[in-house]
Known about the structure:
This protein is mostly helical. It contains 3 helices and no strands. 24% of the residues are buried.
Amino acid sequence: MDKALHALAGVLIFAASDLLDLPGSVSMAIVLLASAAKELADHASSNGQVEALDILSTLAGGLIAYIAAAAYRLTLPN
Length: 78
């Protein structure tokens, strides 16, 4: 369940940045920075554990949103 929540967070972060009309690569960079910041916050907390798979799960969610957004844009008329 934890990894699914990370993937959902990646989708939502990408979607929010995509609403600002940022390039997909910039939106993915924001997803990466947000996931890394969350893991660093976990590391700084007394009980937190840093998990690389959490970052990868968040990135996977962002990538799914990136592909979906690109596919949608292909269907739009010029």
